[in-house]
């Protein structure tokens, strides 16, 4: 290892000295400041300044570019709990500070950097595969080094993870987590590849799902849940999905409610719960498309990417019954955009009150206008079956006193 000028050696510099939680000391055998056993003792004493793991090996079979053996030298890898001063560690080991190398690289966390530094001792890193492969048993360490190398070898590569993602063996989130564990710089390199592989996989799953649904020719079940806030609409939909052993996804009824569907597979959105839907959220044609029970090739409108809707069951949770919702929708040509278009898409209407869950059906009714004395057509929803409401959130006490707030958490101690 070539000697080089460092900030540690320049006491007049205003720049802070180099610090790192992972260091490597490289020194020729003949230039060691102390006998190897004494140096090891000093390394063990670094536990007092936060040393976690250490390991070293003598390289006596390395060759230069001309194929000639280089002078025997030692590599020491030191991993600390936190960043330490290179200058301070050099003084404690009585070694020249220029022989120390900081192993934490930009964009890579300390754990990954430490693993790479330890693996380099036996040339098991990506850039050292062509060098002599030392036996892990030759390494002196304060942990089971051979086991560490074995586990490192069994660790999946980024390509392995991408293959598993493409085959559907892991989710996109799992792939991101596994690649991130290999280092932030690797995650940055593979982020776009993860997106591309998953997008391709999702498109194939979508086509397969559409074919399956068309073959079965079974309508998508659409349930319209309406009633005052806190009466249990969303909770009912969620627990129904759980009881059916089906995965569900809840999207907010606010602006662009379908953004979250972008990365969801058919399995992950078996039950779609559109929560707190408002008349101004969607255009009428978009709402009709989403709720069409026989349209299996649906694309929801979102801000950045229009995702496929692959739900077998759709719950709409809102304070309005379907006709009220329709009448509150803005910018409709009601001669073309009729209420019947919405009503016939809904397989079941459920009204939620504080005490009951009512199965309802729309009934056409003529109402006379008191001012004009003319009859107007409207719809009312009649209850045909009623059940006790066990999902009413208002049954849960949400109020508390200032004293309760001050004592918050005391009961858990």
Summarize the structure.
With 413 residues, the protein is an alpha/beta fold. The protein is built from twelve helices and 14 strands.
CATH topology term of the largest domain: Rossmann fold
Low-confidence stretches: 1-16
SS-based structural class?
alpha/beta
- Give a quick account of the main beta sheet: strands, pairing sense, barrel closure: 7 strands, mixed
Could you say which overall geometry the principal axes of the C-alpha atoms support? elongated
Total strands: the figure is: 14
Observed structural traits:
single chain, about 425 residues, alpha/beta, Replication Protein E1, Chain: A, Rossmann fold, five-stranded antiparallel sheet, disordered N terminus
Written account of the structure:
The protein has twelve helices and 14 strands. The chain is α/β, with parallel strands linked by helices. The chain folds into three domains: 148 residues, Replication Protein E1, Chain: A, CATH 3.40.1310; 62 residues, no CATH class; 175 residues, 3-Layer(aba) Sandwich (Rossmann fold), CATH 3.40.50. The strands form three sheets. Strands 7-8-11-6-12-13-14 form a seven-stranded mixed sheet, covered by helices on one side. The protein has a five-stranded antiparallel sheet with strand order 4-1-3-2-5, with helices on both faces. A two-stranded antiparallel sheet has the order 9-10. A hairpin with a 3-residue loop joins strand 12 and strand 13. Helix 6 runs antiparallel to helix 7. The radius of gyration is 33 Å and the shape is elongated. The two termini are 56 Å apart.
């Amino acid at each position: 290892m070539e000697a080089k000028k460092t900030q540690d050696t320049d006491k007049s510099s205003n720049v802070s000295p180099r610090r790192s939680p992972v260091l490597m000391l490289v020194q020729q055998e003949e230039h060691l400041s102390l006998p190897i056993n004494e140096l090891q003792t000093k390394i063990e004493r670094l536990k007092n300044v936060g040393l976690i793991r250490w390991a070293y090996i003598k390289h006596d079979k390395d060759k230069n570019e001309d194929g000639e053996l280089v002078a025997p030298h030692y590599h020491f890898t030191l991993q600390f709990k936190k960043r330490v001063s290179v200058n301070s560690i050099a003084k404690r080991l009585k070694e020249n500070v220029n022989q120390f190398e900081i192993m934490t690289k930009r964009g890579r966390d300390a754990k990954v950097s430490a693993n790479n530094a330890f693996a380099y001792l036996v040339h098991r890193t990506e850039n050292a595969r062509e060098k002599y492969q030392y036996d892990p048993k030759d390494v002196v360490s304060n942990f089971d080094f051979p086991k560490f190398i074995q586990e490192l070898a069994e660790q999946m590569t980024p390509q392995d993870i991408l293959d598993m993602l493409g085959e559907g063996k892991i989710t996109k989130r799992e792939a991101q987590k596994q690649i991130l564990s290999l280092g932030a710089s690797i995650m940055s390199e593979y982020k776009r590849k993860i997106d591309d592989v998953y997008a391709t996989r999702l498109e194939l799953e979508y086509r397969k799902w559409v074919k399956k649904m068309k073959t079965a020719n079974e309508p998508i079940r659409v349930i319209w849940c309406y009633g005052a806030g806190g009466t249990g609409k969303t909770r009912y939909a969620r627990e129904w999905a759980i009881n059916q052993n089906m995965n569900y996804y809840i999207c907010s009824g606010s602006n662009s409610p379908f953004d979250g569907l972008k990365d969801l597979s058919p399995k992950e959105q078996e039950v779609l719960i559109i929560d707190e839907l408002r008349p101004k959220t969607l255009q009428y044609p978009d709402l009709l498309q989403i709720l069409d029970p026989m349209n299996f090739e649906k694309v929801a409108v979102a801000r950045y990417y229009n995702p496929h809707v692959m739900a077998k069951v759709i719950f709409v949770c809102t304070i309005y019954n379907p006709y009220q919702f329709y009448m509150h929708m803005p910018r409709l040509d009601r001669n073309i955009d009729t209420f019947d278009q919405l009503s016939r898409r809904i397989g079941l209407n459920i009204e939620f009150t504080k005490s009951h869950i009512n199965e309802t059906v729309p009934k056409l009714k003529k109402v006379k206008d008191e001012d004009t004395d003319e009859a107007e057509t409207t719809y009312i929803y009649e209850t045909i079956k009623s059940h006790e409401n066990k999902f009413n959130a208002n049954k849960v006490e949400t109020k508390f006193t200032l004293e309760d707030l001050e004592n918050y958490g005391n009961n858990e101690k």
